[in-house]
Amino acid sequence: MTTAQEQRAVPDPSAVDLTDPQTFLDVDPHAMWRRFREESPVHWQPVNGSRMPGFWAVTKYADVVDIYRNNKEFTSERGNVLVTLLQGEDSASRKMLAVTDGPRHREIRNLMLKSFSPRVLEPVVAGIHRRTLELVELALEHGELDFVTDVADHIPINTIGDLMDIPAADRERLVEWNTQTLSRHSSEDSALDEVMARNEILLYFSELAAKRRRNPGEDVISALATATVDGKPLSEDEIVFNCYSLILGGDESSRMSSIGGLIAFSEHPEQWRRLKSREVGADSATEEVMRWTTPAMHFGRRALVDVPVRDQVVRAGDVVTLWNSSANFDEDVFADPYTFDIARTPNKHVAFGHGPHFCLGAFLGRVHVNAMVEALRTRVARVELTGPPQRLYSNFVYGYSGLPVKLTAEPAA
Ligand code: HEM
């Protein structure tokens, strides 16, 4: 139940600006989303100075899942995140999987799934566990460190980097561009930095894809560069935009879940004990870390026709945003949602989305979080935060650019 005092501290939905990254730093997100779900679950937010007059914010789990599933009445082709949806279009439309619908989406998705299915990735899993363990062991030698820059930043980028055969020397640059594209370190970084980072990544892959076309190898870029659908090769734009989406998807969200997981364990000693004592398995803990951290706070769609949602009618052409960070804490679906419970079951969260655009890299994302949970469980005795976590400035990624911690090793067996 929400107390009167909490209610006062949380702005009512009409006073919240979901386009402003600062909102997500200023407000307690759980309390904010609870008010949305209770008072205005299908909420219209007007926007000034944009090509769109405003957008819907949908916050109940059942509605979020319904709209994710409904690619007949809602399209991803005019953008799938707030920033592009409000511009009225996405320059990657019909070139990048996430912003393509219909038969072309199915064809390209099937093609890409060949590189990302659990069966194909099985040989990569042991390597992810090994790399994570090595980094956690190195961190333990230092004791005090920044968990973001010293540990988490080096794991998923190297997995996706290996799969795409990206030269090792280029990977650090890509991590920095990734962070700038989806979010900012602070309000002082400009929106121009985001655009420039995106262009740097596109240019980088355009050069690499051209090389792989001439001289293909066993990697995912070569697979895209040499694939044919209905006897025709993919266009250069399709190859480059899909590489862009793999490097962003492959790195940023997995990194943020692992970091958020470490914070969650440091703040919930009882759950840390249950993990350490093996009372609860790492797979179950991984799912709860995914729900608890929900790194992709929202995705979105454009309505193609008028669609009633609860007591509102979403009109053809309207922008609809689906807030995973609310749906994953909906009291109607999750018992005691604000409790971090690593044994939670069922746990059908929407951290990876739902329906036809369900995350292509969900298996890989889970493996990364699982490897971190296992490494912490087996090697680390105690986690202490030694300074405040530095949150990213974003209305899309919930995550961190810095996390000072002290890790204490388990005594050698
Ligand atoms: C789609 C989240 C890891 C690549 C999505 C969507 C979500 C999501 C919510 C749905 C987007 C929509 O409906 O518009 C996450 C999270 C991850 C993660 C939380 C990690 C913890 C990955 C990884 C990869 C990846 C490791 C790459 C290998 C993609 C791609 C799509 C996608 C290509 C588009 C799929 C389609 O449109 O059919 N992701 N993702 N993601 N993700 Fe992930």
TrEMBL record:
Annotated family = Belongs to the cytochrome P450 family.
* InterPro entries attached to this UniProt entry: Cyt_P450, Cyt_P450_B, Cyt_P450_CS, Cyt_P450_sf
Q: Does the keyword Metal-binding apply?
A: yes
Gene3D superfamilies reported in the protein's UniProt record: Cytochrome P450
Chain intervals for the UniProt region annotation (Disordered):
1-20
UniProt organism field: Streptomyces mauvecolor
Q: Which residues form a coiled coil?
A: none
Question: What's the protein here called?
Answer: Cytochrome P450
Alphabetically list the UniProt keywords: Heme, Iron, Metal-binding, Monooxygenase, Oxidoreductase
The UniProt entry, under CDD domains, shows: CYP142-like
